[in-house]
Amino acid sequence: MIIKVCGTRDAENIHALAELGVDWIGFDFRPDSPKFVRQISSRAGIIPDYGSREAAMGKETVQNESANGCFPQRFGVFADDMPQNIVTRVVNFKLTMVQLDGEESSVMVNNLRSTLDPDIRAGINIMKTLHIQTVEDLMQTREYEGTVDYFLFKVDTAKVDLNVIKTYSGSTPFIIGSVVLEQLDKLKAFQHPMFVGVDLDDCADVQTAIKALTE
C-alpha cells in the first residue's frame, strides 16, 4: 500500500518521513494554504537535496538517500494555478508528480502533460483530487479516465461508507484521502482492484507543516 504524506516543508521532518519509508511526500503550492511552500534556496533543505540532515544543519549534503537506500516520490499540490507556475515548481523542486486540487479540466491536464513530458520531466505523473461522498460523486471520474495517472478520492472516512468507493468501475488507480488515524485499520482491510494507497495529511499533523508518524 502506498503511504502518501502532504504538507511538510521542514528539512528534518522530510528526512524523518523518508526514514520511515513513506512512499510519496508532497509540497503544498497553494498560496492560501498555511502549509504553502515558497520558492526557496536549495540551502533550505528541500531542493535539491530533499531534506537531508546535513542540509538542515546548513552543511553540504553528500548523498540523496535515506537509511533504507531510497527516497519517496515528491509531488506538488496545486489548485487552479497557472501552468507556468506549475512547470516552474516541477523544475525547481524536481517533482515527479503533480496533484491538481482545483477545478482543472481534462483539457488542462492534457495540455500540462504535453508541456512537461517529455521535454521538461519525462514520465511525470498527474493526480486529480475529487471529493467523494456519494455514488453519484464518482461520475466525476469519467472526464479524467485516460487523462490522469491517479485519483485522490477525498472521503470523510469517519462518516462515509467505503462501500461507496467500491462502486468505482474505472481503470485509474486511486488513493483514499481525508483519512483519520482511527480508520486506518478499516482501510487496511479495504479491497478494490484500483485501490493503491492512503493519503495521511492533516491526521498526521502535530503542528502546521510538521508530521508525526510511526511505523
UniProtKB/TrEMBL annotation:
Catalysed reactions, semicolon-separated: N-(5-phospho-beta-D-ribosyl)anthranilate = 1-(2-carboxyphenylamino)-1-deoxy-D-ribulose 5-phosphate
Superkingdom field: Bacteria
InterPro entries, per database record: Aldolase_TIM, RibuloseP-bd_barrel, TrpF_fam
Q: Enumerate the Gene Ontology biological process terms.
A: L-tryptophan biosynthetic process
SUPFAM superfamilies annotated for this entry? Answer: Ribulose-phoshate binding barrel
Q: Which UniProt keywords apply?
A: Isomerase
Tell me a Gene Ontology molecular-function term this record carries: phosphoribosylanthranilate isomerase activity
Gene3D superfamilies on file: Aldolase class I
- Extract the PANTHER family matched here: N-(5'-PHOSPHORIBOSYL)ANTHRANILATE ISOMERASE (PTHR42894)
Q: What is the protein's given name?
A: N-(5'-phosphoribosyl)anthranilate isomerase
Species this protein is from: Prevotella intermedia
